[in-house]
Each structure stands twice: as structure tokens, then as C-alpha cells.
Design brief:
single chain, alpha/beta, Rossmann fold, seven-stranded parallel beta sheet, about 45% helix, about 15% strand, binds nicotinamide-adenine-dinucleotide
């Protein structure tokens, strides 16, 4: 059987992550998806992925836990024998102004978004180094570049991902491991669905393209960064935001 490349997507069952799982499946990748519920809950997604003639494997765990990350990476390696692309996509928000922000609001967001990205990358990189090939793509945010009132925790976590990405790009370039971050603006998913309509209208005013983005807009960039067409791109933060932050 022809060897397929393997993409491992954290938080890959909803929103942007789900779209990326399906897009990379269409590109012919075998897909590994990290989920937080029992894998049996995602049979519909599994069928959708496998309809592209590729395999789909789920591993349940919390990216913010170092041991879970190690176990999940080992499970994927046991299942497929390789990881070509790691997409650090799992993320949460706990929005509130600093005056009201609890220690737990700050720590939980840093732990999932930033420490989770470290945990997963830390355990995947040794396998990529051995094969002298790898793509690490992490979901940052325009908020990590420009800041946002009410999101000091989230912005700090995403800015951290950007520094992490640039450092690793320098460390791992000689091993042919490319490390990039994506900075989405406002994308229509469960994360932004909670925003009141009035706030959404205000946001659209700040976007030159006058619309919130679709998960597909981000997945198309993930497709490019996972392909051989992007083999001279590393250490970059690429915005997908309709021109919101320039
Ligand atoms: N939607 C946007 O406008 C937007 C903008 C910028 C960045 N992002 C980033 O894109 C990524 C995907 O967000 P989304 O909009 O698809 O929202 P989403 O809530 O649908 O996706 C987040 C995923 O992360 C998973 N997750 C949460 N905590 C986890 C944990 N501890 N361990 C493992 N998985 C966990 C969730 O189960 C979910 O599948 C996030 O990193 C988010 O910060 C989103």
C-alpha cells in the first residue's frame, strides 16, 4: 500500500479544526484527531473523513496535560507510524476585563492554548527530527498581535504561540521542520457565535472585506502550509482576517 502522509489535528472535531481535518483528508492525508469526548461520539466525522479514501483515528485527551499529550502522540505513532503535520488548533477563551479576571481565567487559557501547544509539539518533534521532515502549524490570532480589551489572557496565550513558533523555526529549520503560525481574525465558529449581533456588526465595520471569515478560509491556508508548495516558508505568522489587522 502506498504510504500516506499523516496530519494530527488537536481540537479537530469542531469549528476550524474540523474543517482542517476534512480539508487535509481531501488532500490525501491520513488523519489523527485529538478530541475531548469519547471517540465513539464522532462516528459521523470519521465517516466524512474516510469518505475521501483515507484513514481517521481519534485520540482522547487534554492538551494542557503533559502526560495526556505524550500518550496521544504515542497512540498516533503506534497507529500510523509517523506524523508529518501537527496542527496545534485546540483553544479556549475566558473573556473578561482584567479587573474581573480571576487567576483561574488567566491560567486556564494559558494552559490550554500555550502550554497545550508546547506539550503537543514537545512530544511530536522527536519523531519529526528522526525523519528529517515535519510541518508544525499553530493557531494564533490577530488578537495575539494587536491585543484586545477583555482578552488579556487569550492575547497573551496567542502572543506566546507566536514567540514559540519563531524560536522553533530557528531551532528546527536545519532538520527540515517548518514551523508557522496562523492568525485568524473573526471566523464564524462556536467561539464567535456567542458574540451579540451588535458586536458582530461593529466588528464587520473594522474589516475591509466587511464579513466574518469562514473556517474554510483558515483550512485553505493550512492546506497550503501542509503542502510542498510552502517548503520555503518558516517562522511566519500569516493573517487570515479580511484585512482587519495590517
Ligand atoms: N473563531 C475565531 O474567530 C478564531 C479567531 C482566532 C483564532 N481562533 C483559534 O482557532 C482555534 C479553533 O477555534 P474555533 O473557532 O474552531 O473554536 P472551537 O471552540 O470550535 O474549537 C476549539 C477546539 O478545541 C478543543 N479543546 C478545548 N480545550 C481543549 C483541551 N484542553 N484539550 C484538547 N482540546 C481542547 C475543543 O474541544 C474544540 O474542539 C482556537 O485555537 C482559537 O483560539 C479562532
Amino acid at each position: 500500500m502506498e504510504e500516506r502522509r499523516v496530519a494530527f489535528i488537536t481540537g479537530g472535531t469542531t469549528g476550524i479544526g474540523r474543517e482542517c481535518s476534512l480539508t487535509l483528508a481531501k488532500e490525501g492525508f491520513d488523519i489523527a484527531i485529538n478530541c475531548i469526548n469519547e471517540p465513539e461520539e464522532y462516528t459521523e466525522l470519521k465517516d466524512e473523513v474516510e469518505a475521501n479514501g483515507v484513514r481517521c483515528f481519534f485520540t482522547k485527551g487534554d492538551v494542557s496535560k503533559f502526560d495526556d499529550a505524550e500518550r496521544m502522540v504515542n497512540e498516533v505513532i503506534e497507529h500510523y507510524g509517523r506524523i508529518d503535520v501537527l496542527l496545534n488548533n485546540a483553544g479556549i477563551t475566558r473573556d473578561t476585563l482584567l479587573m474581573r479576571m480571576k487567576k483561574e481565567d488567566f491560567e486556564s487559557v494559558i494552559n490550554v492554548n500555550l502550554v497545550g501547544t508546547f506539550n503537543m509539539t514537545k512530544h511530536v518533534v522527536p519523531y519529526m527530527m528522526k525523519r528529517r521532515y515535519g510541518r508544525i502549524i499553530s493557531m494564533a490570532s490577530v488578537v495575539g498581535v494587536g491585543g484586545n480589551a477583555g482578552q488579556a489572557n487569550y492575547a497573551a496565550s496567542k502572543a506566546g504561540i507566536i514567540g514559540f513558533t519563531k524560536s522553533l523555526a530557528k531551532e528546527l529549520g536545519s532538520r527540515n521542520i517548518l514551523v508557522n503560525a496562523i492568525a485568524p481574525g473573526y471566523i464564524k465558529t462556536a467561539m464567535t457565535e456567542v458574540l451579540p449581533d451588535k458586536v458582530k456588526e461593529g466588528i464587520k465595520e473594522q474589516i475591509p472585506l466587511r464579513e466574518l471569515g469562514e473556517a474554510k478560509d483558515v483550512a485553505n491556508l493550512v492546506k497550503f502550509l501542509s503542502s510542498e508548495d510552502s517548503s520555503y516558508i518558516t517562522g511566519q505568522v500569516i493573517h487570515v482576517d479580511g484585512g482587519m489587522l495590517m
